[in-house]
């Protein structure tokens, strides 16, 4: 069965262009013009991946609200912002809300398709049988790299796919500094330094919500980050 991509875009011509391109690549595509119609559809069934604009009709930040709602429904659903708004504040806001990618509308169809395939590839492992060699344990942290699940002190840690692979890269080798480039490589994303910093801050907040004494992710200023074993 074709994988289902939802596009939430209020400009009909742009939405149709994305839809037609993705349909030619074999995807099943649904298009929604506003947050309300998308939210109603997502309440019944989530897509395999969501592409969202920030401004939706009269709602200047409707996409941000929709992202927040989607992330509450599923911690692992790939969410991509595709928007003309490219300010640093907007990018950081989108990622803080849990989006996996924040892309601008100047991106080519080929680049967009590559990002979609990368995100879908990373979540495909969720249904795979559990294998012992895919389990990572570092102190109170447990991660299953095939199912992309994580826990801290026995409590579920809800990470996006990008966050998961960043934590995995850090925890694999405690004490070793991972540069921002290495974190991007491990998560199969292309981000700037400020965006990496935003992801790390969000990851820390998730750990702190479970354990207020959490301090395992250390900043090596000007270099990167490391996991303190």
Automatic annotation (TrEMBL):
Molecular functions per Gene Ontology: phosphorelay response regulator activity; transcription cis-regulatory region binding
Keyword DNA-binding: yes
A GO BP annotation: regulation of DNA-templated transcription
Coiled coil stretches, renumbered: none
Top-level taxon in the UniProt lineage: Bacteria
DNA-binding region boundaries: 133-229
Domain OmpR/PhoB-type: 133-229
Residue positions where 4-aspartylphosphate is found in the record: 53
Protein name: Proteobacterial dedicated sortase system response regulator
Key words of the record: DNA-binding, Phosphoprotein, Transcription, Transcription regulation, Two-component regulatory system
Keyword match NAD: no
A GO cellular-component term linked to this record: protein-DNA complex
Domain Response regulatory: 4-120
PROSITE patterns found in the cross-reference section: OMPR_PHOB (PS51755), RESPONSE_REGULATORY (PS50110)
A Pfam family reported for this protein in Swiss-Prot or TrEMBL: Response_reg
């Amino acid at each position: 069965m074709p994988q289902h991509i939802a596009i939430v875009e209020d400009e009909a011509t742009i939405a149709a262009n994305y839809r037609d391109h993705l349909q030619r690549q074999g995807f099943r595509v649904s298009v929604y013009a506003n947050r309300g119609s998308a939210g109603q559809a997502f309440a019944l069934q989530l897509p395999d991946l969501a592409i969202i604009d920030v401004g939706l009709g009269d709602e200047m930040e409707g996409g941000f609200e929709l992202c927040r709602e989607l992330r509450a429904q599923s911690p692992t659903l790939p969410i991509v912002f595709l928007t003309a708004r490219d300010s640093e504040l907007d990018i950081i806001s989108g990622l803080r809300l849990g989006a996996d990618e924040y892309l601008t509308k100047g991106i080519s169809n080929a680049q967009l398709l590559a990002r979609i395939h990368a995100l879908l590839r990373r979540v495909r492992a969720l249904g795979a049988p559990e294998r012992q060699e895919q389990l990572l344990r570092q102190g109170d942290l447990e991660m299953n790299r095939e199912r992309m699940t994580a826990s801290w002190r026995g409590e579920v840690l809800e990470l996006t796919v990008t966050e998961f692979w960043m934590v995995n890269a850090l925890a694999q080798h405690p004490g070793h500094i991972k540069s921002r480039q290495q974190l991007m490589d491990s998560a199969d994303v292309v981000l700037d330094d400020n965006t990496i910093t935003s992801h790390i801050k969000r990851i820390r907040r998730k750990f702190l919500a479970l354990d207020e004494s959490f301090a395992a992710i250390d900043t090596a200023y000007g270099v990167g980050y490391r996991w303190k074993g």
